[in-house]
Amino acid sequence: MIKNPNQIVRIFFYILVLMSGTKQQDLKKNLLISTVFAVAMAYLESTVVVYLREIFYPHGFKFPLIDIPPDIYLIEVGREAATILMLWAVSGILQRNRREWFAYFAYNFAVWDIWYYLWLKIMLGWPASMLDWDVLFLIPLPWISPVLAPVLVSSALIFSAVVILTFESTGHPLNLTIRDWVLEILAGIIIIGSFLTQTEVIAAKQVPQSYPWGIFTLGMILGLAVFIFRLRERLKLGSDPG
Fold first, then answer.
1. Which of 35, 60, 143, 218 has the maximum number of C-beta atoms within 10 A of its C-beta?
2. Is residue 93 part of a domain?
3. Is residue 42 a contact partner of residue 115, using CB atoms and an 8 Å limit?
4. Per the domain annotation, does 10 fall within a domain?
């Protein structure tokens, strides 16, 4: 889809030019508000994890996971759901349409996710490596992967969200087709599927040994390829959104 790597460079520069326009002042303000909220939310999230690890992993977090009392487990599931709802609600305050709501949510989620790990690194010195294993979510089953995987996903979400919001702010939206959305959802399912491959290992109280990077990479390539193809087609229209 992108035969010449220079095309990707041109796309990045084009987005930067759009972002520098006077029409993007509201977008810049909203992104600043979103960033402050997501970073602060990540701090709160990481402090809860610090407390939990002090209680359940006083000698440092490691696999295999220990058994958590059912009531605490349910509270953790509720906390995760509440976090997602808060990120979703704040995104709704900033949006003007459904595309922007989705993009702001993706941006807030991704910034929150990356800063969650940054705060843990500051507070606990963990992760020691981007390949350290972590429990990402508990809904509906434990999502397990090296830290690098969710960070890569979040980086891609930030890029995609900023591109979508930039075009929205110019009045010339980047419209994904139904086929695009189906393929993006499929890419997300593939990535989440890679996170769920360790379920039996965790249930057996074992230490994860290998992560299906091939499956994860397939999902990432599919998601990015569809998005970049649609972006490239949008730029081919030749109109100047700025």
1. 143
2. yes
3. yes
4. no
Q: How many domains does the chain have?
A: 1
Token pair of 33 as six digits = 């508000």
- The HSE-up count of residue 72 (CA atoms within 13 Å, CB side) is 11
| CA-based nearest residue to 42, from 111, 129, 100, 131 | 111
Segment 145-149 long-range contacts (CB within 8 Å, at least 24 positions apart): 145/194, 145/195, 145/198, 145/211, 145/216, 146/211, 147/117, 149/191, 149/194, 149/195, 149/211, 149/216
58: left (phi over 0), alpha (psi -120 to 50) or beta: alpha
Domain-located, residue 13: no
Q: Is 194 exposed, middle or buried, given 0-12, 13-18 or 19+ CB atoms closer than 10 A?
A: buried
Q: Which of 159, 167, 32 shows the shortest CA–CA distance to 97? A: 167
> What pLDDT is stored for residue 11 in this prediction?
56
Q: What is the number of other CB atoms lying within 10 angstroms of the CB of residue 165? A: 26
Structural domain range at position 26: 18-235
CA distance 197 to 63: 15
Report pTM.
Answer: 0.85
Mean pLDDT in each 10-residue stretch from start to end of the chain (242 residues)?
Answer: 52 53 72 93 94 90 87 91 92 86 95 96 94 91 94 96 88 87 96 92 86 96 93 68 44
